[in-house]
DNA sequence: CTTGACCCTCACGTAACGGTAGGCGGGAGC
DNA sequence: GCTCCCGCCTACCGTTACGTGAGGGTCAAG
């Protein structure tokens, strides 16, 4: 029922120092002290800490969190509703960032320069732009980087050249099929579209059919991408786009 | 081709002071200066800033970002891959947090106490736990709270009582249908399951069929939830769960 | 040639802790 | 009963990533 700082810290994934700090500034003062001055946290304190952690994750400054939690107008359920809402907004924003990265990656592959707008629009400051914060705890340091590095960046220079070679090989075969007069929804074209998708998945990121059709739309909608493909062979952008769509429909 | 601090700051959604700071610590030094000492940023500088912003959003400390970006072993494409990966991990974690909130909300509605474990396991520090950071820029202050408040917390005490009344009314009618001997996949039971889903959507959060079946599973898997429903009427937890599943299958 | 917006370099201030020092308390093993 | 070590306590200084002026040049427009 009553816990010590150490226990609370361990359970909640924060340091003892953090709890001391929250006590100092009055954000979370334990409901009682032992005879010898030890802090004693009860279940209500834990619930408060839970809300604090969520609001912190959402980037609220401590002072503001104190104001929110001490606002008599909002009960615990209201906090949960608000956190749910804010988390959803934040997830949507991160998903936009993922899309932006995918866009930047395609541009990078095809040597297409980005406008400053395109580089940063995802950080757009004018609207539902939430702030985030720490949560780090134990893989601070370069750990996050190393971990991701182990998975994603274990490509050597040789791998990179192989990737380029595979892409060029795919390009040659695609142009062949296109020149053969086969329609964009022919099995041959769709197979190459599927191969295109799997090349992305193997070398860059998990490319779902949905994401793939997104790329296809971009190839015809953005003139710089269109130009890139048209230079390889006129009509290629539209042809590739249609092949990708057909492939997604029949396979998904 | 060459931009001033102000232009870059505006485009990238950071303050001039931030760019000064990045220059001071050598994280992003503009490629040149004008005759009168003005900083001039070119497109390569913008690309670097783009990566900085993404890594910052992912919570990397500036020093680490400098090390990563200056690592000759990783090209721009590698950074994009890594950012894509880390963002995906982060999104998954936030989605877990959303689920945890939904769980906490159900528990709160039914007056079920949470264990410390359950309160904080989503902050679990032992594994893919990424750190996040700012991004705030212009709706710092209490703006985020207010905005969310306008949408989600405009319920008055009266509304809250109405919600409770609606819930109790739903409960009564559900017990009736159950007592009538109608099977859990009967239209009457499914209609009440659907109503249950819409009550959540109206009062708490957008409850998809998928989320709803998740709740249904929890009602039978977690003994505390089961006990709550069993006390209303024996067999209710399983019956309600089945009705929700049937409803989701036929409507979705 | 003035005015307002924009740039420069200090330089101190702040938030949210991290880390360590110096000292008390408590229970387990001798 | 004594020792040991671990966990708790209260300061107090350090750090990161900027915020916020102060004091003073600059540049394009009118």
The SSE order of chain A reads HHEEHHHHHHHHHH
Q: Largest sheet of chain A, if any?
A: 2 strands, antiparallel
Mean pLDDT of chain A: 88
How many whole angstroms does the radius of gyration of chain A measure? 26 Å
Distance between the termini of chain A: 53 Å
**Residue fraction in strands of chain A:** under 5%
Question: Which chains have the largest interface?
Answer: A-B, 83 and 83 residues
Query: What is the molecular shape of chain A?
Result: elongated
Question: How would you explain this protein's 3D organization?
Answer:
The structure is a homodimer of 252-residue chains. By secondary structure, chain A is mostly helical. Helix content of chain A is 67%, strand content 2%. Chain A is built from twelve helices and two strands, in the order H-H-E-E-H-H-H-H-H-H-H-H-H-H. Chain A has helices at 5-12, 16-24, 43-57, 62-70, 76-109, 116-120, 143-152, 157-179, 187-203, 209-221, 223-232, 236-251; strands at residues 32-33, 39-40. In chain A, strands 1-2 form a two-stranded antiparallel sheet. In chain A, a hairpin with a 5-residue loop joins strand 1 and strand 2. Chain A starts with a helix and ends with a helix. The model of chain A is unreliable at 126-141 (pLDDT under 50). Chain A binds a DNA duplex (30 and 30 nucleotides) through helix 2.
């Amino acid at each position: 029922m009553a816990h010590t700082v150490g226990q609370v810290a361990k359970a909640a994934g924060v340091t003892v120092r953090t709890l001391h700090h929250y006590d100092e500034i009055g954000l979370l003062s334990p409901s009682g002290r032992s005879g010898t001055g030890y802090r004693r946290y009860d279940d209500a304190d834990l619930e408060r800490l839970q809300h604090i952690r969520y609001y912190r994750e959402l980037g609220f400054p401590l002072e503001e969190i104190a104001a929110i939690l001490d606002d008599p107008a909002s009960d615990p359920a209201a906090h949960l509703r608000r956190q749910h809402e804010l988390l959803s907004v934040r997830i949507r924003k991160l998903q936009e960032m993922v899309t932006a990265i995918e866009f930047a990656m395609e541009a990078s592959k095809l040597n297409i320069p980005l406008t400053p707008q395109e580089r940063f629009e995802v950080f757009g400051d004018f609207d539902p732009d939430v702030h985030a914060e720490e949560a780090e705890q134990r893989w601070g340091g370069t750990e996050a980087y190393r971990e991701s590095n182990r998975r994603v960046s274990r490509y050597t220079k040789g791998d990179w050249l192989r990737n380029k070679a595979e892409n060029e090989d795919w390009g040659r075969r695609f142009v062949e099929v296109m020149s053969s007069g086969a329609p964009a929804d022919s099995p041959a074209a769709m197979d190459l579209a599927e191969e295109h998708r799997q090349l992305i998945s193997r070398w860059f990121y998990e490319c779902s059919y949905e994401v793939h059709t997104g790329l296809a739309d971009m190839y015809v909608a953005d003139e710089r991408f269109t130009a890139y493909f048209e230079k390889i062979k006129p009509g290629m952008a539209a042809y590739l786009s249609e092949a990708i769509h057909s492939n997604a429909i029949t396979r998904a």
